[in-house]
Amino acid sequence: MSKITVIGTGYVGLVTGACFADLGNTVMCLDIDQKRIDGLHKGIMPIYEPGLEEIVERAYRAKRIDFTTDYAAALQSAEYVFIAVGTPSGENGEADMQYVEKAVKKIAETIDHSFILVDKSTVPVGTGDWAAKILQERFAETEIKFSIVSNPEFLKEGTAINDFMRPDRIVLGSNNRAASEKIAELYESLRCPILITDIRTAEMIKYASNAFLAAKISFINEIANICERVGANVVDVAKGMGLDSRIGPKFLNAGIGWGGSCFPKDVKALVHIAQEFGTQPQLLQAVIEINKYQRKHVVQKFEEIFGDIKGKRIGILGLAFKPDTDDIRESPAVDIIKYLTQKGAIISAYDPAAMELSKLVLPKEVSLYENPYQVVEGTDALLLATEWNEFKQLDFEKIHQLMHGNVILDGRNLWDPQSLTDLGFRYYGIGLGQYK
Ligand code: UDX
């Protein structure tokens, strides 16, 4: 079994560390945030991720995982050093590389033996070569040997453990094939396809994959908007398209747009990379624009329904950017609430996990409640923004009684239009020609 160090205890870092420990390796996780590390020693997870706590606890009890803020302690006997720190969006959409740079420099300063550096952070193409230069300069006069491998992460929030343990593929990119093969051994027990490429190609695969998925969603959202005009049903259109094995059924759910910690920043970063290298990525720019438009489209729909929405009471179910997470980064719900309040609508909202974080970003006048039924009381309209399981089977008779009006805008096409119409609601979906 191997000795692995993971730098960064965010989504990618902690899941990677915990899962490698679960597979039998000895893992040291480092973070510069002392509070995070203290919390982890006490079993407090810094992120909301189903199943993570159990895995971390199990590995901690078995002494296969530990946490530190001290680089020297973290790197002491590391064979493999994974970098999994954040690369947030900078001012112009570029990836902000300060955390990756600091991590590489700290490793260069501290480590005193040969190792393989593995990058899991999503980084601009060329970062691996940049890191190689830094390490080369540092170790030129020493016996220390190193290699760099790019190993992009494709995990999704909410299903991260399963995504790690049952990946569709592992991508390993390096200018030293033997190093990639060493890292491949760490994943051998997962029995999945392993693609070995050069380092720049691996870095590009991550951006291209996320951009493609975002494009797929923006595509179906554009089709949805056309369906609304021409009287077609986008859910069935997506089904019909998805049965073509060249297209596939996944990521074709029309809705109020994509958000989260990855798609928005990665598509913007790819646009930035393309422009930096002198090419105009027209499709990628359209993918971003359609996504911005989709949030405004929801507000337009309310305006079409009500005329003026000033003074209208709208209840919102869901604030997280998707179900099973408390993450509200780039969440469509948050933007839509901001637009609606700017236009004078009165907003009440509920989310099963994201209320605490939402308080920090929502306009002060938004009222947050403890359950869906409190949210809808006295409202003119109800908007479903995030398709949490707990919203699938609500008591709509009760909701009908509690509401003042009868408008439902189902932003994720979660509910059955006919049964809600039968109950007396005016039901609107996304891209549902008859329910527009
Ligand atoms: C994504 C990628 O899927 C993952 O591979 C990468 O490592 C990180 O970014 P994540 O951000 O966790 O993962 O969320 P994901 O489940 O991909 O959803 C992204 C957004 O797209 C959400 O806002 C979701 O609501 C939206 N979405 C997804 C749709 O609107 N329609 C769909 O059909 C699928």
UniProtKB/TrEMBL annotation:
It catalyses: UDP-alpha-D-glucose + 2 NAD(+) + H2O = UDP-alpha-D-glucuronate + 2 NADH + 3 H(+). The active site is at 262 (nucleophile). It comes from the Bacteria. Residues 315-417 form the UDP-glucose/GDP-mannose dehydrogenase C-terminal domain. Substrate binds at residues 154-157, 206, 251-255, 259, 322. Keywords: NAD, Oxidoreductase. GO terms for molecular function: NAD binding; UDP-glucose 6-dehydrogenase activity. Pathway: Nucleotide-sugar biosynthesis; UDP-alpha-D-glucuronate biosynthesis; UDP-alpha-D-glucuronate from UDP-alpha-D-glucose: step 1/1. The keyword Manganese does not apply. Its EC number is 1.1.1.22. PROSITE patterns: PROKAR_LIPOPROTEIN. One of its GO terms (biological process) is polysaccharide biosynthetic process. This is UDP-glucose 6-dehydrogenase.
